[in-house]
Structure to design on (578 residues):
């Protein structure tokens, strides 16, 4: 991977637009980190340095903000990022059984990525869809009313897509 | 009639601007523009519209704290962080009825003299934020945002700002820090955001649902809105979330004099598998629990307070007989231990100590002294911190351990 980081023209246009939406450059930091993560896949030192340079902010400030937020990742995630809610309502409706399916099918624990780079598994807190519990997100897409069977099928489907 | 926001949610296309306008949308805005800003504020005050994000503070009164003649810009910040466990009403508003929110934003901004609104949406809301973006683009394209809205001379910009995963950014000053590009660590209050909020300027922070009701209040008038759920200081209707062990979990828009029993049995279809009710978490996981003999309480801000708990964000979670309360306590404690921002010692340490102690008891390795230690830590976490995340674990944990002490005792090594 090259050390060079640069926004694509589309991302650059979004970046220029968001600079006009805030009274300070610092306020554009989190949106710019989002652009960076979407463009580069993850936010390593090089990516953070690029963001710092573009916003003319000290690197320390960029790192300080970035590391506070759990959705920004310093390392590459798998092709499929599975985030399973394990909070109260999902627990009441059987998320433990779903966790077991992850173990059985993928052998992954919280925050682990499979050796082939296909799956990253994360246990997360309430995603505000408790009426459709248990639920998960796969690459940001909400998947509701999971059963061990439906979830096993989902994972097997993703495996075959890889 | 008890439904205002959810009247059409099952109809296809209800999230579009065309549908919204065809069903009377944006007419409250036209009405508001014919009123003076003070009159709009007065109407919202009269409707005693109480904040739906958790604290129940009357919106109209909050707005009136913003200085009228400020030479700084003023901001409206809509709290769409929705991360209180058990709460999922704001998601529904963003996905299906974003125009209610957007119209509410324009009217509220007009009332307070605000020209820029930020909507802070939690980072995990990938699908809701897409729906919101689409609605905002539509609204801009038809002249509901931007300069000289509908020829009124009133200007308003609106920017969607995505968070990146942190419960604490739902707390209004943590949210403001995050909006400014910093870690979301809550600020000391005072000063309150109404005086010094976003970017050092006067700021109104309101929950999505609070703002989404503003058009209906202007449209109907405060009096009619209040009559929909006639109850002192708590009138009107609101959105109740119910989940856990019920047959029909979901969001129900109901008058504020609805009882918890009605919510569970009439609306949510009763307990799953017709089991017995074991306990209720009434307003999100930060609220102390209620026992089955307490469910005739009206689900409003004041009545629940009388029972030592809160309506909070109306995230009601139902727990049926047969549930392991010690494990439930661990699930709850883990959340707060994970989400504490860490700047106050009682919260940073206390939330984790409680989590570790509950895990120890759950594993069958705890002692009776550990149970008392949990209660002791709870007492020392209350009222000691910058924000109330600390209390938000201490209060419910204390209620769970006190009311189900026998279940904890049955697990300890020195059980009788
Ligand atoms: C730890 C914590 C988390 C909170 N999370 C949220 C939230 O996710 N959404 C929300 O609207 N309010 C949340 N609040 C309440 C806000 O601080 C604030 O009271 C609210 O946004 C004000 O709007 P309202 O008056 O319309 O309710 C939270 C408060 C605390 C202490
Ligand atoms: S507890 Fe899982 S979505 Fe709320």
């Amino acid at each position: 991977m090259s050390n060079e980081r640069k926004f694509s023209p589309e991302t650059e246009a979004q970046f220029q637009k968001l600079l006009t939406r805030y009274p300070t450059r610092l306020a554009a930091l989190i949106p710019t980190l989002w652009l960076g993560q979407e463009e580069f896949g993850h936010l390593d030192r090089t990516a953070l340095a690029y963001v710092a340079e573009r916003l003319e902010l000290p690197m320390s400030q960029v790192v300080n903000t970035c590391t506070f937020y759990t959705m920004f990742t310093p390392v590459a995630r798998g092709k499929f990022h599975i985030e399973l809610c394990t909070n109260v309502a999902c627990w009441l409706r059987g998320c433990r059984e779903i966790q077991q399916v992850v173990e059985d099918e993928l052998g992954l624990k919280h925050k682990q990525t499979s050796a082939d780079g296909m799956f990253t598994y994360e246990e997360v807190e309430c995603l505000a869809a408790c009426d459709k519990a248990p639920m998960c997100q796969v690459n940001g897409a909400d998947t509701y009313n999971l059963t061990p069977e439906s979830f096993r099928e989902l994972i097997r489907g993703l495996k075959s897509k890889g | 009639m008890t439904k205002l926001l959810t009247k059409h949610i099952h109809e296809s296309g209800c999230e579009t601007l065309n549908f919204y306008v065809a069903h009377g949308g944006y007419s409250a805005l036209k009405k508001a523009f014919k009123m003076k800003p003070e009159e709009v504020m007065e109407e919202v005050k009269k409707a005693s519209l109480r904040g739906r994000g958790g604290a129940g503070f009357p919106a109209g009164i909050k707005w009136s704290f913003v200085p009228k003649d400020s030479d700084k810009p003023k901001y409206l910040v809509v709290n769409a962080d929705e991360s209180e466990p058990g709460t999922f009403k704001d998601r529904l508003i963003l996905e299906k009825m974003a125009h209610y929110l957007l119209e509410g934003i324009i009217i509220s901004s007009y009332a307070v003299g605000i020209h820029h609104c930020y909507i802070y949406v939690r980072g995990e809301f990938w699908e809701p934020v897409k729906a919101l973006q689409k609605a905002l683009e539509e609204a801009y394209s038809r002249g509901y945002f931007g300069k000289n809205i509908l020829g009124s001379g009133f200007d308003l910009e609106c920017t969607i700002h995505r968070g990146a995963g942190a419960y604490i950014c739902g707390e209004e000053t943590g949210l403001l820090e995050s909006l400014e590009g910093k870690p979301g660590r809550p600020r000391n209050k005072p000063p309150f955001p109404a005086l010094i909020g976003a970017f050092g300027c006067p700021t109104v922070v309101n929950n999505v649902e609070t703002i989404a009701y503003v058009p209906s209040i202007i449209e109907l008038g405060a009096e009619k809105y209040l009559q929909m759920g006639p109850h002192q200081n708590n009138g009107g209707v609101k959105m109740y979330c119910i989940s856990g062990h019920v047959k029909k979990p979901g969001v129900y828009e109901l008058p504020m004099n609805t009882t918890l029993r009605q919510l569970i049995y009439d609306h949510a279809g009763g307990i799953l598998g017709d089991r017995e009710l074991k306990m209720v978490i009434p307003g999100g996981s930060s609220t102390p629990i209620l026992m089955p003999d307490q469910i005739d309480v009206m689900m409003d801000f004041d009545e629940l307070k009388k029972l030592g708990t809160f309506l909070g964000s109306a995230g009601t979670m139902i727990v049926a007989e047969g549930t392991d309360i010690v494990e439930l306590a661990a699930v709850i404690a883990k959340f707060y231990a994970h989400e504490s921002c860490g700047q106050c010692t009682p919260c940073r340490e206390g939330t984790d100590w409680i989590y570790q102690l509950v895990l120890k008891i759950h594993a069958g390795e705890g002692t009776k002294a550990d149970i008392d230690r949990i209660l002791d830590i709870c007492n020392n976490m209350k009222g000691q911190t910058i924000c109330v995340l600390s209390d938000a674990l201490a209060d419910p944990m204390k209620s769970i351990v006190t009311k189900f002490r026998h279940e904890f005792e049955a697990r300890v090594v020195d059980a009788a």
